[in-house]
Amino acid sequence: MLEAATLSPETSIAEPPRDPAAFEALVREIGRDGACEVRAVFWSETDARLRLFGDLALAQQRARIEREAHSLKSTARTFGYQRLAALALQLERNAAALDEAGYRKLLEAMAAAYAAAREQDG
User: Fold this and answer.
1) Is 1.20.120.160 the CATH number for 16-121?
2) 99 touches 80 (CB < 8 A)
3) What is the pLDDT of residue 4?
């Protein structure tokens, strides 16, 4: 198992919480109203997904955690949530080998990254 010290969510702190250019690119593609609507769905789904991660039993549900992390990584990138995407990638790549402490550390870092990005969204 990978221990908490093996992974370093701190390395993802170098990533900006949010890249506003990503949302503006989406606005150019589907319009401001559509982009705002899709972003609201992302927020709702991400709130639920972060709660789900906290409820999933790591030892029994590693494959699901990996799939959920993959989905979160992809959608976070779409909206420019760089730090959250980097942390979700760490979770996706390491779900099979994480220990409980490492898992909880990543979840805390993901929640903080998401909160910081939402704060920048205003």
Assistant:
1) yes
2) no
3) 44
